[in-house]
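hi! just following up on the protien thing from before. the input was this:
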Amino acid sequence: MPDDLHCAAKVTADVVSGRWKVQILQCLFKGTQRFSALQHAIEGITQKVLTQQLRELEADHVIHRQVFPEVPPRVEYSLTEFGTSLWPVLNTMHEWGLRQLAERSDSPAAPGPAGEV
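and the predicted 3d structure came back as:
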């Protein structure tokens, strides 16, 4: 792989890497979400980790954080135009993953649920 292509692919992987970022993006592809809605939609994520992942996505200009001057404050998250452009990338990754799962299940040496062959 040429160095410039490798570098660009790594940038993309870095933006979406993280245990929860793809799930966060899936929620935001459905529309603007409040923090509590994201936390309820993503089973197992802690408040600390969700906050961290959202900050990273915001720093990468993938999501927008809107704070409303209310008491108590209301915060909503949405995809930026740049973030919306990740849809075809994630969709391609999803399709590739489906093919990979099918390949594994068709393989006679596919590992079982506990990793045994």
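The chain has a mean pLDDT of 88.
Helices lie at 3-16, 21-29, 35-41, 47-59, 81-84, 87-106.
cheers
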